[in-house]
Amino acid sequence: MFAEKPTLKGERVTLCPVGTEHVEGLLELVSDPDVRRLTGSHAGFEKEQLRMWYATRGDQPDRLDLAIMADGAYVGEVVLNELDAPNLACNLRIGLIGPRVFGKGYGTEAIELVLAHAFTTTPLHRIRLGVYAFNERARHVYKKLGFVEEGVERDALLWDGEWHDAVLMAILRPQWEAGSRSLA
Q1: Per-residue pLDDT tens digits for 42-97
Q2: HSE, side-chain direction, 13 A CA sphere, residue 22
Q3: Do 14 and 8 form a contact (C-beta atoms < 8 A)?
C-alpha cells in the first residue's frame, strides 16, 4: 500500500522520503530530552544504527517514512506504519526535532499532507495514533485535524518515577472527508 514513496509539498513544509542524508537530523531528534519525554523513548541510538534504519525505509512497502523539511532543513519525520491491510488501517507517528521548531505549524501541516495522501491515494479507512496525556499541545493539534479520542491506556509510561496515561486517537476516512471539505 505504501510501495510508492511520494514527495508532498505544503506551504511551510515539504515531505520527502527519508534517506541517509537525513541521519544528522534524526540523531538530533532522538537525542533531544524534550522529544524523548514526549515520545516516551527510553532507548538511546547510535548514528550508524540510525543510518542503517533510514537507508532501508524506502524498501518497505508496508510503511511510509517521510522527512519533514522546512526551508531545506530537516525538522522531523512523519510515519505511517503498523499497516493492517485487511482492515484498511495503520498507525501515524510524528516527531519534530525539538523545541526550536515547536509551535511553527510544521507538525500540523505535515499531518494534513499525510492524511490527504493516505485518504486520496490508498483505500485506508482508519488512521490511529497514541499520545501521552501530558502532551496537551499534540492532543490539541490532533483534535483540530479530526482525530477522536477513543480510549486510554492507564499508566502506559513510567518516566522519571511517575506513571503517565497514553490516549488512543483515530480518524476515519468519512471524518477526514467531511473535515477537508469544510476547510476548502
Answers
A1: 888 899 999 999 999 999 999 999 999 999 999 999 999 999 999 999 999 999 99
A2: 28
A3: yes
Render pLDDT for 13-54 as a digit per residue (tens, 0 to 9). 999 999 999 999 999 999 999 889 898 998 888 999 999 999
Q: Are 167 and 143 in contact (CB under 8 A)?
A: no
DSSP the chain: ---S---EE-SS-EEEE--GGGHHHHHHHHH-HHHHHHHT------HHHHHHHHHHGGG-TT-EEEEEEETTEEEEEEEEEEEEGGGTEEEEEEEES-GGGTTSSHHHHHHHHHHHHHHHHS---EEEEEEETT-HHHHHHHHHTT-EEEEEEEEEEEETTEEEEEEEEEEEHHHHHHHHHHH-
135: nearest Cα among 35, 42, 44: 35
**Given the C-alpha cell 486520496, which residue does it identify?**
120
pTM exceeds 0.90 for this model = yes
> How many angstroms separate the CA atoms of 93 and 95, rounded?
7
Going by C-alpha positions, the residue among 49, 30, 50, 55 that lies closest to residue 41 is: 30
DSSP-assigned letter for residue 148: E
